[in-house]
Amino acid sequence: MGLNKETLAQLVKMKAKFAMSGAVATSVDFLLYLWLVDYQDWAPVPANIVSYSCAVVLNFMMQKRFVFQLQGSAGRAFLLSVLVSVVGLSINTGIVYALTRFAFFMEYQALTKLIATGIVFFYNFYLKRYVFERKFI
Prior knowledge:
- The protein has helices at residues 5-38, 44-67, 74-99, 103-107, 109-133.
- It has one domain (5-133).
- Helix 1 runs antiparallel to helix 2, helix 1 (5-38) crosses helix 5 (109-133) and helix 2 (44-67) runs antiparallel to helix 3.
- The radius of gyration is 16 Å and the shape is elongated.
- By secondary structure, the protein is an all-alpha fold.
């Protein structure tokens, strides 16, 4: 399945918008996570669950408005988006958990969170695009 120039350009533009909405949500995720871990003395895993969940809701609202063209009901898209995000949360939290078993990553929580977020970015893009537009590519 080959992509023509126009389709490729649209996909790149969509990924850029997705990355921008993700950057805002990720900033909320990071700041809340670091605040909970560093200033509220939360353990990394519960802090990750709370911060990631808050970012999921914010990100859904931004993606619905600025990134994807909704095909179908918003309620259905939200439920499917939450399902995708729960799996993303599981992957993200699993990475945070695994990395924080090492003293280096326990000391550098921002790096730990950055690695987990980077890995989950691509998973989220393609599955969320399917949820909103019923397309993978």
